[in-house]
Amino acid sequence: LAKTTQPISMDSYEGQEVNITCSHNNIATNDYITWYQQFPSQGPRFIIQGYKTKVTNEVASLFIPADRKSSTLSLPRVSLSDTAVYYCLVGDDSGNTPLVFGKGTRLSVIA
Amino acid sequence: DAGITQSPRHKVTETGTPVTLRCHQTENHRYMYWYRQDPGHGLRLIHYSYGVKDTDKGEVSDGYSVSRSKTEDFLLTLESATSSQTSVYFCAISAASGTDTQYFGPGTRLTVL
């Protein structure tokens, strides 16, 4: 499984766009990039997944450069309710082994 | 929300006692997982199951055992609880392995005195 590196924590003011970058230098050809969000006192929940270029949904956008060695989760105009831990996971569908969550990035949104 | 329940939601026990946590799903998903979450360590996989009676170890399996006798239930057992096993335990399920979405339960807060 590809190893991922994310910042431990980030702070942002309400209304700003937040970009969280994940490094995955040894990503394999069949690997996908998946992000989860975890609010305090809850389990993580899936927010977005991509393979290359750009993916957007109602929650976030995911930008993946051509070399795929990193990815950026973009949260537009954050609010206090976006305060959470964000996890970047990288892996494929082969075998039964689940992806590794790691420590994630703790985002604190300030009023 | 996916139909996942965990019981108990909170438990306080003493060192050396056995503890069993239960995860129950109503989604008929093949895969089930047990994680623990501790400050500074993120989410770490304890054991997982890829079918009835099919289980495998995760990265922090020492001191834990699991059983899955039917699709809907995945049990996590601490044979002799230690203070280092004080943690929040999350169960998750997914229909397939790898990149398939995992759905998490509400968690169980376990305190071992």
Structure description:
The complex is a heterodimer of chains A (111) and B (113). Chain A has 111 residues and is an all-beta fold. Chain A is built from no helices and 9 strands. Chain A has strands spanning 9-13, 18-23, 32-38, 45-50, 53-56, 61-64, 70-75, 84-91, 105-110. In chain A, strands 1-9-8-3-4 form a 5-stranded mixed β-sheet, with no helix packed on it. In chain A, a hairpin with a 5-residue loop joins β6 and β7. The radius of gyration of chain A is 13 Å and the shape is globular. The model of chain A has no long low-confidence stretch (mean pLDDT 94). Chain B has 113 residues and is mostly beta strands. Chain B contains no helices and 11 strands. Chain B has strands at residues 4-7, 10-13, 19-25, 31-38, 42-51, 54-57, 64-70, 73-78, 87-94, 103-104, 108-112. In chain B, the strands form 2 sheets. In chain B, strands 2, 4, 5, 6, 9, 10 and 11 form a 7-stranded mixed β-sheet that branches. In chain B, a hairpin with an 8-residue loop joins β9 and β10. Chain B is globular and about 35 Å long. The termini of chain B are far apart. The model of chain B has no long low-confidence stretch (mean pLDDT 95). Chain A binds chain B through residues 32, 34, 36, 38, 41-46, 49, 85, 87, 91-104, and chain B through 31, 33, 35, 40-45, 48, 50, 56, 58-59, 90, 92, 94, 96-107.
Describe the secondary structure blueprint for this structure.
The complex is a heterodimer of chains A (111) and B (113).
Chain A: E1 9-13, E2 18-23, E3 32-38, E4 45-50, E5 53-56, E6 61-64, E7 70-75, E8 84-91, E9 105-110
Chain B: E1 4-7, E2 10-13, E3 19-25, E4 31-38, E5 42-51, E6 54-57, E7 64-70, E8 73-78, E9 87-94, E10 103-104, E11 108-112
Parallel strand pairs in B: 2-11
Antiparallel strand pairs in B: 1-3, 3-8, 4-5, 4-9, 5-6, 7-8, 9-10, 9-11
